[in-house]
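Standup, Tuesday
Yesterday: got the pipeline producing structure tokens again.
Today: sanity-check two examples.
Blockers: none.

Example 1:
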Amino acid sequence: MQKLLAFIDASIYSKSVCDHAGWIAQKTGAEVDLFHVIGRRETGESRQNLSGNITLGARSALLAELSALDEQRGRLAQKRGRAILEDGEALLRAAGAKTVTSRLRIGDIVETACDFEGEADMIMIGKRGEAADFAKLHLGSNLERIARAASKPLFVTSRGFQEPKTIMIAYDGGASSMKAVDYVARSPLFAGLTCHVVTVAADTAEPRRMLDDAKAMLAGGGYQVEIDVLQGPPEAAISEAVTQKSIDLLVMGAYGHSRIRSMIIGSTTSEVLRLCKIPVVLFR
């Protein structure tokens, strides 16, 4: 791995992003590009036009005051962003990252990820951001957008960091899960981890054959692999297996259905992310 893009904000998940990114950098020697993206609303670039609601002589004075407040808000947002990046860079270096580049951007986080992913091997983001509703287990508002838009693997961090010792690959034989198996087999990032491969299906000859193929590919990369066929709804079965087998890191394909279909039937990817309290690496 040559380069990792890591996105942080002021949420409690950002320390976990830095700790996990430092672990990856230490294992692979990857450079880390650390991003904080300021939305245009925070800088006043997309301010609401209130001129039509203000009458007579009050209009010019109030508009001048609103403009000054927007400018102040923009300066504070950039100052806050630089402080977040400074803290994040310190955490990364303490965790073992040798080459860190901090980047403060104004705009949309998904556009930023897509603009820079061409030079990276992986993207990292926390499971939840500053605005997430923990009581309802809402995922971060940008997580699904990045997962659907990015072409590189997306590492979604859990709330806290624990150095991974075991990895599970949720495998369904599709293109994204085949890509995940190939990536794990070749990457030094996962070397030395205990590996499990599972699928959710009726326990018949075909799923077993599919798992044997994945096991053979991973064995070629030096892994000792355990395989298992799980029963039940995929999100619940995978989450339960993660807990029972004490898995530290889950790898799976992401968002196999269209966004419209996912709105109707739900998304296994989103449900797994909500239910599992460990980091998840998504492949498309």
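Example 2:
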Amino acid sequence: MKIPYGLKKVATLCVLQHKDEFLLLRRKKDPNAGLITPVGGKLDPHESPLTCAIRETREETGIILPSMKFCGMLTESSPTHYNWVNYVYLGQIDRMDPPPCNEGELLWVHRDHLLGVDTPKTDWFIYEYLLADKPFMFSAEFDSDIVLQTMREELENVFVWPREG
């Protein structure tokens, strides 16, 4: 089934944490090929966001989680095909060697380096809010080249990009 141009796709972002480290993915596929992101993916028909987060974590890492914490949402809008609604979850996991992943390379990133990794700009704000244990509802607007123009956190009603003040 072809998705109508501009229609938002629904996905999960699954941030996996062990103490002060996060298991993240250097993506080999678009969107965001070459960048470091959480694991995750699109919801299947009739699937809840939580079920999707648990499934995507299992498929991409082999880790089976009974539950995950819902942390917030990221809505991404552009005048192109790049339009997403992302449910963001946090899963607590045991430390292990990163397993092989068909989506790219899994790697551990310490919390002190999390805000400096080569990641989509939107993810920096997700990590910032996760580290502060703050819920969020981000709304990101992109131009036709998929360059972030503005990003607003709706719960606090503030622009996080560009930063206010």
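Quick observation on example 2: The mean pLDDT is 95. Strands lie at 9-18, 21-27, 36-37, 39-42, 69-77, 84-92, 104-110, 136-142, 148-153, 158-161.
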